[in-house]
Automatic annotation (TrEMBL):
InterPro entries per record: D-isomer_2-hydroxyacid_DH, D-isomer_2_OHA_DH_cat_dom, D-isomer_DH_CS1, D-isomer_DH_NAD-bd, NAD(P)-bd_dom_sf
UniProt cross-references to Pfam families, sorted A to Z: 2-Hacid_dh, 2-Hacid_dh_C
Native source organism of the sequence: Arachis hypogaea
Gene3D superfamilies referenced in this protein's UniProt entry, alphabetically: NAD(P)-binding Rossmann-like Domain (3.40.50.720)
EC class: oxidoreductase
Protein name: glyoxylate reductase (NADP(+))
Amino acid sequence: MDSELPALLVLGPPMVFNLFQSHYSHKYRFLNAFSSHLPLPQFLQTQQTHPSSVRAILCSPRQPVTADVIRSLPSLGIVATTTVGADHIDTAECRRRGIQVVTLGSQFAPDVADMAVALLIDVMFKISAGDRFAKKSIHFKPWSFPSGSKLGGKRVGIIGLGRIGGQVAKRLEAFDCIIMYHSRNKNPSVSYTFYSNVVDLASNSDVLVLCCPLTEQTKYIVNKEVMLALGKDGIIVNVGRGALIDEKELVQCLMKGEIRGAGLDVFENEPNVPKELFSLDNVVLSPHAGAITLDCFMDACEHVAKSFDAFFSS
């Protein structure tokens, strides 16, 4: 009987949810709150489910797990998200209640790092802009298109040398790039130059790649001062979170030529993207797709399923 299966409250939903549900519908009773406009207590009533019987949440950034949500579920013991970051979960309230928070950790890191390098190459070589140019021009001469720039030997400043940042550095070393970084703490296990100040890192970099989590301390870690320090030949790649960059200032710097270009997989007010960026050939946009691969989806489902199995069997 479905009513005898553990209840799993689904908020968001995660992009992998359809796949997860198809694989594990025999193990859990899915309470798809994302499909209802009712407040959570009323939604649970429609599902004939008492709040105290909900012990697990599966979520995504589309629908935050707030302190109010957590407090409304007295037996909640685990919150799992199919993202690397947990800024959409009130982790402080979870800690206070002793609730386990499960993220994807390093599962997405290689794919997101690939995306960061792809965006950088696209911006530097003007691949997307060149594609549009070639398709619009019936007869074109190669030299009629603005030249790009090589990647080899460029000074790359990585903000956040964690799982993803480390993978980005590993890939860019193969291009003979000079790697530098800024993190909360200096990493003694790497030989890259460490900068405790982001402005100093930008001043000594040709490229900034943002890979760090979004926290109160890292919001707008790349502001106008940092962009101006990066300079007119500088490129910014963001595969972290949109609000790591002061987006309004980024738009202005790109339009005024105060930085050379940007490759963006994330945005401050997703799914909204600043329209001013649409016509700029020095900008490459991606719809937060750094980890949208079937391989990642399968890995994410397996990781979350193992976490739920361990929780419900304990």
